Amino acid sequence: MIPRLALLAVLIGISGCSSMKPEDFAGRQPKLLIEEYFAGRTKAWGIFQDRFGQLRRQFEVEIEGAWDEGTLTLVEDFLYDDGETEQRVWRITKRGDHGYEGQADGVIGVAEGLAYGNALNWRYRFALKVGDDTWNVTFDDWLFLQSDGVLINRAEVTKFGIKLGEVTLVFRKVAGAPAQAAGVAAE
């Protein structure tokens, strides 16, 4: 019995040591400043896969963003492949050089994010509608800004520490969006 416990402790220790941290991306370019990237119009395409890798949902998102006096307001209009629509409005505040806090309908408490280089790690609890039920789940989002203004987002969705699935999104600026919204800045 003791060897199994020792093996479990080693596995937990290894997985804990291999976790990405936002600071790991300091200095990477292009630099992601969400208050610049999401200013104006952005479009996203996404999928949700369950923990077994099965595609469960596809969707598109039209996003209108405005940075005003330290607050980024994002109006997200979702269109799911089954015809369902949803709107979510985020209000995000910058905290220091690297931190962000945000609130939106469905978010439980405050979402917290850290950005370094081309990456942002965004974590929050969310009241997710699942059929007629609502599940309180945790999102662990990683956003990575690529060249040409492409932003890739992977989010792990868990409940009680058990992985339910992953959300993958790709964002692009809409033609005519403000030039400073490209998210490219010197570190």
Describe this structure in words.
The chain is mainly β and 187 residues long. The chain has a single domain, classed as Calycin beta-barrel core domain (Lipocalin, Beta Barrel), CATH 2.40.128.20. It contains two helices and ten strands. The protein has a ten-stranded antiparallel barrel with strand order 1-2-3-4-5-6-7-8-9-10. The radius of gyration is 18 Å and the shape is globular. Mean pLDDT is 88; it is low at 5-18 and 179-187.
Strand content: over 45%
- CATH overall fold name: Lipocalin
The beta-strand count equals 10
Spell out the helices and strands N to C: HHEEEEEEEEEE
Shape by Cα distribution: globular
SS class: mainly beta
The figure for the number of domains is 1
What's the CATH architecture name?
Beta Barrel
Mean pLDDT: 88
Biggest sheet record: 10 strands, antiparallel, barrel
Which sequence of strands runs across the widest sheet? 1-2-3-4-5-6-7-8-9-10
- Count of helical regions: 2
Mind telling me the CATH class? Mainly Beta
Distance between the termini: 51 Å
Radius of gyration: 18 Å
- The name of the CATH superfamily reads Calycin beta-barrel core domain
Sequence stretches where pLDDT stays below 50 over 5 or more residues: 5-18, 179-187
What layout of secondary structure does this protein have?
Layout: H1 2-17, H2 34-37, E1 40-50, E2 55-68, E3 71-80, E4 85-95, E5 99-104, E6 107-116, E7 119-130, E8 133-145, E9 151-159, E10 162-173
Antiparallel strand pairs: 1-2, 1-10, 2-3, 3-4, 4-5, 5-6, 6-7, 7-8, 8-9, 9-10
